[in-house]
Amino acid sequence: MRRSAVLLAVACATLLAPGIGAPVQRQGSRNKLLLVSFDGFRWDYEQDVDTPNLDTMALDGVKARYMTPAFVTMTSPCHFTLVTGKYIENHGVVHNMYYNTTSKVKLPYHATLGIQRWWDNGSVPIWITAQRQGLKTGSFFYPGGNVTYQGMAVTLSRKEGILHNYKDEKEWRANIDTVMTWFTKEDLDLVTLYFGEPDSTGHKFGPDSQERKEMVAQVDRTVGYIRDSIRRSGLESRLNLIIASDHGMSTVNKSASDLVEFHKFPNFTFKDIEFELLDYGPNGMLLPKEGKADKVYEALKDAHPRLHVYKKESFPKSFHYANNPRITPLLMYSDPGYVIHGRLNVQFNNGEHGFDNKAMDMQTIFRAVGPSFKRGLEVEPFESVHVYELMCKLLGIVPEANDGDLSILLPTLTPETNGPLSTPLPTRTSETNGPLSTPLPTSHSGGRPSLVTGLLAAVILLAKVA
């Protein structure tokens, strides 16, 4: 009898150890997952270009009419929403650039990719959550995939160089080959793969340009290469593929007679500003000098009909953006097609993003195919914040606390796949506000507390008998 008590005590100790919600062994039958992002792929780009591979993928799997990104519609913030399931005010990566309002330091996009404290500020992305639960993950050029989170790094990762050529199709295929090797030789369970197109071409030439159309055709060829590579690697029956993007693209009205130019506003002066984040597209932030906040706000609130200026506390709650300590007291965005010029007119892109995430030009794509997905299904538009819960479901892992809702995308899965993973987890609703960074307690894992309680009672009883 004493031996039985000891065995039960060992079982209880195992269940009560840190990370009890995590599987103790990797599951050989688990399907793998590849998330591919093509930056700046607007939802309707396939309508004026022949895209046979994207079309075939839709027939073989799931297609959303379009997907609505988070606000602010910028690369790093939106990509981090995909891998955390949080609105931007809740994950804290509020801009493409690292900035510090005290030191006045501003770092460009590529430098910011390596600033750990910018990314690791309380939210744990899916790579780390998966690894804590026994899986192996990889990130290839994906924003946020090259820093550590709470002391843990992604299993395998690659970071793009500052002079990286985004449009090299030969390199694209080499990168895909590497990712397939990660799956087959390194036995990774999850990989996120990032391509900087058609965003770069859309910026330079505009979303309506012939160059953009040619780049979309290159993207489509790459989708075909990815699917062929999955088949060649023998992964077709056990790898799910999701293709998404971060935001769309809008044509910039560069020659409009009503440009948004701060240096021409009659009642505004930069002498009243302590720190500014302007000239980076259609949104901006200002930190007025002490005692100047009301003066600056009054000078700007009606300064231009295309510019929408708010005090932080009055910014529309529907954007889920302003309620974060990194946001300055004054913030703003401009109408589609208009960028914000600060001290000088220094923006010359023909295409831009960063606008209201409800604008149709900002909508983006979602495609999914693989053993877990239904075939030939087109779904209504949804917010990108829900993709994280779907990915956790596909990987069989317990998600962190997030703003998504698994029920939104559960109908995309086959009946064999969409059974419950565990007891339903509480999720944030669209009305929930405020920073969200604490992982869900492991006690939410499938009724485990009652099991532990029962085992403890059994140990006590057996100990008494023994």
From TrEMBL:
Q: Which residues form the signal peptide?
A: 1-21
Any single Gene Ontology cellular-component annotation:
Golgi apparatus
Q: State one molecular function term (GO).
A: zinc ion binding
Q: Which Gene3D superfamilies match?
A: 3.30.1360.180, Alkaline Phosphatase, subunit A
Q: Could you say which cofactors this protein requires? A: Zn(2+)
Q: Name one GO biological process term.
A: sphingomyelin metabolic process
Concerning InterPro entries, the annotation shows: Alkaline_phosphatase_core_sf, Phosphodiest/P_Trfase
Biased amino acid composition, Polar residues: 417-445
Q: Where is this region: Disordered?
A: 417-447
* Keyword tags: Cell membrane, Glycoprotein, Hydrolase, Lipid metabolism, Membrane, Metal-binding, Signal, Transmembrane, Transmembrane helix, Zinc
Cross-referenced SUPFAM superfamilies, in alphabetical order? Alkaline phosphatase-like
Question: Pfam families, alphabetically?
Answer: Phosphodiest
Membrane topology recorded in Swiss-Prot or TrEMBL: Single-pass type I membrane protein
Where does this one sit in the cell? Answer: Cell membrane
Q: What is its EC number?
A: 3.1.4.12
Catalytic reaction list: a sphingomyelin + H2O = phosphocholine + an N-acylsphing-4-enine + H(+); 1-hexadecanoyl-sn-glycero-3-phosphocholine + H2O = 1-hexadecanoyl-sn-glycerol + phosphocholine + H(+); 1-O-octadecyl-2-acetyl-sn-glycero-3-phosphocholine + H2O = 1-O-octadecyl-2-acetyl-sn-glycerol + phosphocholine + H(+); a 1-O-alkyl-2-acetyl-sn-glycero-3-phosphocholine + H2O = a 1-O-alkyl-2-acetyl-sn-glycerol + phosphocholine + H(+)
Q: What is the protein's given name? A: Ectonucleotide pyrophosphatase/phosphodiesterase family member 7
This chain's source organism reads Rhinolophus ferrumequinum
What lineage does the source organism belong to? Answer: Eukaryota, Metazoa, Chordata, Craniata, Vertebrata
Question: What gene is behind this protein?
Answer: ENPP7
